[in-house]
Write a structure and sequence with these properties.
CATH superfamily of the largest domain: Vaccinia Virus protein VP39
CATH topology of the largest domain: Rossmann fold
Number of domains: 2
Strand order of the largest sheet: 3-2-1-4-5-11-10
Radius of gyration: 19 Å
Distance between the termini: 55 Å
Strand content: 15-25%
Helix content: 25-40%
Bound molecules: S-adenosylmethionine
Structural class: alpha/beta
Shape: globular
CATH architecture of the largest domain: 3-Layer(aba) Sandwich
């Protein structure tokens, strides 16, 4: 109770502190042009868990480098940002989108799409609301509609912290949509919580102390709540609804990717597994068979 009140007070204090910092810094920015467009605090709702200005800036920079390294080099390029939230990865991509390129952000939360439309006026960008259900993000919507997108329409796709919020049915169906809408030879960068040997190895270390690798308890990221009838998918006992965080067994994920003709060309094992890395979640770079 008191810690919640203290947290809320801290959030309120951050608003004027951030306004002051940003007004002082705006004219001094010399490289990171896109940071000028970071939405104000009340609009930064899409990136669950990392809503402070400084963490947003860090994450924008991280993905600018990672996506720039792995996106196909040919231009013009067509980019699909799945679960775009309020446009954080759009800001990472901004210095990399050329005049003839096309960027599409899609999300199940219509308010997030509205925020993107008004925050980022850009003729190269399009924002699509997909009225799919999600137990955490979109409880008022039901079903799994296909994306209003042609087959093989995109060269590059990204989904940052999106399949980590999907139950088994959504997870499978929308991975199929990735394979359908990615062109042969195209790439996708996606994050997951993958239950593998490294995860199993660290379970014994997961007491309630703070992790050395991220400022949360080591016991928070234990996936101990199986989905009924789905032995490969897990959520957390401590979460209010399963879609707060979803993990999949590595063998099941690889079988699914194989079936869909998606090959893993690069992987990053995240710090959530209590081992050093440069990102929190697991990242896969996938290529669709040509
Ligand atoms: C943790 S947020 C990440 C947002 C953004 N990628 C970022 O890193 O700032 C997860 C996003 O996935 C979206 N989402 C959940 N299920 C989805 C689905 N089936 N299709 C598209 N987006 C979905 C949520 O609405 C939310 O915006």
């Amino acid at each position: 109770m008191w810690s919640k009140i203290a947290r809320r007070a801290e959030e309120y204090a951050q608003v004027p502190a951030e306004a002051l910092l940003r007004s002082v810094e705006t004219n001094s920015l010399s490289r990171a042009f896109s940071l000028r467009q970071v939405p104000r605090p009340a609009l930064r709702t899409g990136g669950l868990g990392t809503t402070t200005y400084s963490e947003w800036c860090f994450i924008i920079g991280y993905w600018q480098a990672f996506l720039g390294t792995w996106m196909p080099q040919e231009r013009p390029i067509r980019i699909l940002d799945i679960g775009c939230g309020v446009g954080r990865q759009y800001l990472s991509l901004l210095p990399q989108i050329g005049p003839d390129d096309r960027y599409v952000g899609l999300d199940v939360v219509s308010r997030s799409i509205d925020i993107c439309r008004t925050s980022y006026p850009d003729a190269r960008a399009e924002w699509i609301h997909v009225p799919a259900g999600n137990g955490f993000y979109a409880r008022d919507q039901k079903g799994l509609p296909a994306w209003p997108i042609d087959n093989a329409a995109f060269d590059f796709q990204l989904a940052v912290s999106v399949w980590t919020h999907m139950g088994p049915a959504d997870f499978r169906f929308y991975l199929g949509e990735v394979a359908r809408t990615l062109r042969p030879g195209g790439r996708a960068v996606m994050t997951f919580f993958i239950l593998d040997e490294r995860y199993a190895e660290t379970l014994a270390e997961r007491d309630d102390g703070e992790s050395h690798l991220y400022p949360q308890s080591r016991s928070l990221w234990i996936f101990d709540r199986p989905f009924p009838g789905e032995p490969d998918f897990f959520s957390r006992q401590k979460a209010s609804v399963p879609e707060v965080a979803v993990a999949i067994r590595e063998t099941a994920l690889h079988a699914l990717l194989n079936e869909l003709g998606l090959t893993v060309v690069h992987r990053v094992s995240g710090t959530w597994k209590e081992r050093p890395s440069h990102y929190f979640q697991d990242i896969l770079v996938l290529e669709r068979a040509g």
